[in-house]
Amino acid sequence: MSTLVEIRNLHKRFPIHGDLLDRIRLKGGRLELREENVHAINGVDLTVNKGEALCIVGESGCGKSTVARTVMGLIEPSEGSVHYQGQRIDNLSPREMMSYRRRMQMIFQNPYASLNPRMSITETLEEPIRFHQSDLGKAEMKDKVAEVMQAVGVDPSWGKRFPHEFSGGQRQRISIARALIVDPEFIVADEPISALDVSIQAQVLNLMMDAQEQRGLTYLFITHDLSVVEHFGARVAVMYLGRICEVAPTRTLFAQPRHPYSQALLSAIPRLEDERPRFIRLQGEVPTPVNLPSGCVFHGRCPHANDRCRNEIPALRQVDDVQISCHAVEENRIASG
Question: In terms of pTM, does the model score above 0.70?
Answer without folding.
Answer: yes
